[in-house]
Amino acid sequence: MTLLLISGWVLALTSPAIVRMAPRRAGWILALLPAAQATYFGSQLAAVSSGEILTSSLSWVPTLGIQFSFVLDGLSLLFAVLVTGIGALVVIYSGEYLAGHPYLGRFFLVLLAFEASMLGLVLADNAITMFVFWELTSFTSYFLIGFSHEEERSRRAALQALLVTGLGGIALLAGLLLLGNVTGSLEISSMLTKGAEVQGSAFYLPILVLVALGAFAKSAQFPFHFWLPAAMEAPTPVSAYLHSATMVKAGVFLLARLNPVLGGTDAWFYTLTLVGGITMVAGAVVAFLKDDLKQILAFSTVGALGTLVLLLGLDTPLAIQAALLFLLVHATYKGGLFLIAGIVDHETGVRSVSQL
After folding, report:
1. Could you tell me if 26 and 19 are in contact, meaning their C-beta atoms sit under 8 angstroms apart?
2. What is residue 284's predicted lDDT score, i.e. its pLDDT?
3. How far apart are alpha carbons 76 and 257 in whole angstroms?
4. For labelling, which of 90, 101, 214, 303 has a CA lying 20 to 30 Å from the CA of 346?
5. Confidence of residue 103 (pLDDT cuts 50, 70, 90)
6. DSSP annotation string for 149-160
7. Which residues contact 203 (CB under 8 A, 6 or more apart)?
């Protein structure tokens, strides 16, 4: 797994050179590695389904209990397949959508760096490692949302997304450090075995609030939902990849990952169901009032993210299964719809439903 992550960063750094050497075929060439990664993760389905958990670790700051440790279990496998599989398709699409763009090499560099960051986030088994990749997704998304940097609206949307998700990340870091202090370990797999100890601690409520703030900001939950529709200033491949299939699902992933240690309480139930329910209804209603294709899809994504948080808040086996199934379904259909909207916009220059 460590080699897969390193290879992603190497590809990102070399992508501008590949674009210069083969500008018309760059998307297909660069998609080979994400496709190979998706194939690898898909090949682990049988082993993981049978209960096998794959791990790898590299020493980082051993005196502080910080290491680059990664784990592949059912939850991380689902997200890893989405990140790499949809990533490969979006890379191919981007090569055609932005063909001839003077900054195509820069675009692929940041897009592939985001893919590597998101993959590191979902595989991380150390809280600090997760936080580093968590912030890297915010940092790379800033450049992707603001790709059309000549336009003031793009710069404003990028900065807004960075501030909201970045501040949420600071809250998350505080929550993870408190959680590590209570459990005596920064390894997430160890934290998950100490749910009773954490929930009996005086720090449980602060931990829950801080972690929830980080997750809600990343996954565009009310009242932080506004940054996601504004981020539609990004090129369509970015909207399809970051804002429907991957980055906005990071908060949902976090809540699902920490459910065994933080879930099962009234505070968890009411916080997630209330915030998720409000987000679900508000996103769905506003989507009906919009005329722009990407805005319709953006607000319906907000509603879908609210649905996922609501289901996780219910905290029953059936609700969690429904959440993960809906997460898979939403990532695929919404990513596809964004790409279709991009084709319509690319060919007609219009995204307004009434004009179309």
Report:
1. yes
2. 94
3. 9
4. 303
5. very high
6. TTSHHHHHHHHH
7. 178, 181, 182
